[in-house]
Amino acid sequence: MKSCAVALLAVVLVGCHPSGAPLKGLGNRVTFHVPGDSVTLAGATWGSAPVGVVFAHTFRDTKESWAPFAETIASRGFLTLAFDFRGYGESKGKKDPSKNDVDLEAAIAEIKALGATKVFLVGASMGGTAALVVAAREELAGVVAVSVPTEFSDIDALAAAPSIEEPLLLVAADGDPDGAATSARRLEAATGNSTLDVIRGSRAHGTDLLEGPTAGRVSTDIAQFLIDHR
Description:
The protein has 230 residues and is α/β, with parallel strands linked by helices. Helix content is 33%, strand content 23%. It contains seven helices and ten strands. The chain has helices spanning 2-15, 67-74, 100-113, 126-135, 157-160, 180-190, 215-229; strands spanning 28-33, 40-46, 51-56, 79-83, 118-124, 142-146, 151-152, 155-156, 168-173, 194-199. An eight-stranded mixed beta sheet has the order 1-2-4-3-5-6-9-10, sandwiched between helices. A two-stranded antiparallel ribbon has the order 7-8. α3 (100-113) crosses α4 (126-135).
């Protein structure tokens, strides 16, 4: 019965993830401040629930890369927030990946202010690195890291990994030219409560895994993780 439900979930998720879907017209726009440096970040939210999911983007993307999936996850009974790191998209300030962790903590504070009492983090590439570092010092429901480097700028996920107590899902393609699968295996070895899913035969990186032939599997893996641990 569970396998049938997972198969149906895959169909729903892929059907609700149009490649390159724009953020315009989707979600509720929000802005919030990063404590201490007065930078204003921009995001969009979907749904209304006591369990929240914050989505963090890659170095080359913005919140739009997560928007279709964030909307779909909201339809599964979550409050979701996709946001732009400083200097990206609609957020203010200059790009500074060394502050991705404090930007992500501000996003957590925002989704809690909107009513979430439990929070998941879902990050892709540099967003995943920040998510792991934040998970080592925040109490979260769980973390998903897609194509995550062990380090990005001054953010060191491998050093933080032994302190992560939350359930962790690591997803990477074995052909990712950035070595994401190797990084994921190192992080799995450094943590005590992680699940690793290596996608064979794919070179996709980050949220590109939510498109094309890998979309069904990756979308289902992430959604099922969130549902299982909420």
